Amino acid sequence: MKPTTIFLHSQHQIAPVDERIFGGFMEHMGRCVYEGVYDPASAHADQNGFRQDVLDALNKLKMTAMRYPGGNFASGYHWQDGVGPKEQRPRIRELAWQSTETNQFGTEEYLHMCRLMGWTPMITVNLGTGTPEEARDWVEFCNIPKGTRFADMRSADDPYGVKLWCLGNEMDGPWQLGHVPADQYAVRAQQAAKMMKDVDPSVELVTCGSCGVGMSTYMEWDAVVLDYLGDLSDYVSLHRYVGNRENDTADYLAVTNSIDQQIEEMDAVCRFVQAKRRSSKRAYLCFDEWNVWYKNHQVDGEGVVAPHLIEEVYNLEDALVVAGFFNAFIRHADSVKIANIAQIVNVIAPLQTRGDELLVQSIFYPFAMYTKRRDGIALRAAVEGPTYEGKTNGEVNVIDSSAILNGDLLYVFATNRSQTESAPLIVDLADREIVSLVDGEVLSGTDPKLVNTYEQPDAIQPQAFSAVKFDGGKATLELPPLSVCALTLCLAPQS
Ligand code: AHR
């Protein structure tokens, strides 16, 4: 294969990479909370009932913003059910996933976990069956010093200071509890937003945008709600689940085209509304649910606690697509400020539990490879090299890539989408000399369908990668077929 060159210049900057694009999402769905992060009956439980093996594994991902409690669950959730003495909390028949919710894990357990893990809390209020005032009361519970009704319901003396709040979840979807047309959601969200900011002016709010590119109200919904909420919207949400439904790996790996497009379209509507309103305030993008999800459609909990729902098994090609999401976020660091992989354990997740066992799935690894190289400024790249045509996703570079500059370090991420050929790559930073490799990792394999199992837990895992040559200030390497590579390169000091 002919070489691909990634042309970079240290002054061709997109924006600093917001560390919050390495966020997660923890929903009261299936076995994400119960039997996932929280399981007092497990041999791995600490004194809080938190599963240490799961949290230790998540710790390696250095997740930032952790969205909670849903998802669709949020639209039927009344936060007061999940606070106060555990023995007094109600068992609820919940409707989003037809499960039984015991409420043994609620706001304060979540916020305690966030503190232990160093996660930034991110709470989705109920704008489906809940009221704007209930959302306001939740902000008081979390953020206001004691002395008034809802703050006094908190067991912790000091406020938690929750800054990030989502104004409902997927309210454009007819499946959502309390779904309404855009103009009605906009009124609800504006009322909630005003009261939430009245209680704590420092909160940042995420307005519900279109939850998918296939929605019939795509972009119209967003224009209406952003216009109505005006400067109350700090961010607008977008969601994306992708899959290899046609079993066409080449096309599946080209889905990055359509992720880029979705980001650019959403940014365009933000800019359109900003201009129309003649406002100096720009709403940024919050990609608060994203992942691969297409194989497992079990969404009916049949009335039980912690049912097995959408426990997707991930393979090598899925891991490459997850890397593609991160490349798209880094390439759009000027607009995408928050992103949350959905979800963190058991439910469409990088980790799975079975009793006291823990399995690390393929998609865990690209997250780990990117997150340890996330600090810095995203660089705009000109990529020259072989391309191919995906059946539905159009023409893409064989090598998908992104780059981050961090002082004298350059992080380069490159995915070879070819299933059969290795791909030569040249990294050329025009104004700086690339002199050496600090470290590198590659995740690769010959079978796109390869998975980790409890019997073979290490079938897919990254290997150290050191086969990088340096000549004339450029780095050259060869990416194996079906691989994602993350490199930390060292630059000659600037004179
Ligand atoms: O992450 C699973 C579900 O997918 C979420 O609850 C919902 O928001 C989306 O449709």
How are the SSEs placed, and which strands pair?
Elements: E1 4-8, E2 13-16, E3 23-25, H1 52-59, E4 65-68, E5 92-94, E6 99-101, H2 107-117, E7 120-124, H3 132-143, E8 164-167, H4 182-199, E9 204-207, H5 220-229, E10 235-242, H6 249-253, H7 256-276, E11 284-292, H8 316-331, E12 336-342, E13 351-354, E14 357-360, H9 364-371, E15 377-379, E16 382-384, E17 387-390, E18 394-397, E19 399-406, E20 409-416, E21 423-429, E22 434-444, E23 463-464, E24 469-471, E25 474-479, E26 483-491
Parallel strand pairs: 1-21, 3-4, 3-12, 4-7, 7-8, 8-9, 9-10, 10-11, 11-12
Antiparallel strand pairs: 1-16, 2-15, 5-6, 13-14, 15-19, 17-18, 19-20, 20-26, 21-25, 22-23, 22-26, 24-25
Helix pairs in contact: 3-4, 4-5, 5-7, 7-8, 8-9
The site of alpha-L-arabinofuranose has 10 residues, from loops.
Report on this model:
The chain is α/β, with parallel strands linked by helices and 495 residues long. It has two domains: 4-10 and 378-491, Sandwich (Immunoglobulin-like); 18-374, TIM Barrel. The protein is 22% helix and 27% strand. The chain has nine helices and 26 strands. It has an eight-stranded parallel β-barrel with strand order 3-4-7-8-9-10-11-12, surrounded by five helices. A seven-stranded antiparallel beta sheet has the order 2-15-19-20-26-22-23, with helices on one face. Strands 16-1-21-25-24 form a five-stranded mixed beta sheet, with no helix packed on it. Helix 4 (182-199) runs parallel beside helix 5, helix 5 runs parallel beside helix 7 (256-276) and helix 8 runs parallel beside helix 9 (364-371). The radius of gyration is 23 Å and the shape is globular. The model has no long low-confidence stretch (mean pLDDT 98). It binds alpha-L-arabinofuranose. Alpha-L-arabinofuranose (AHR) binds next to loops.
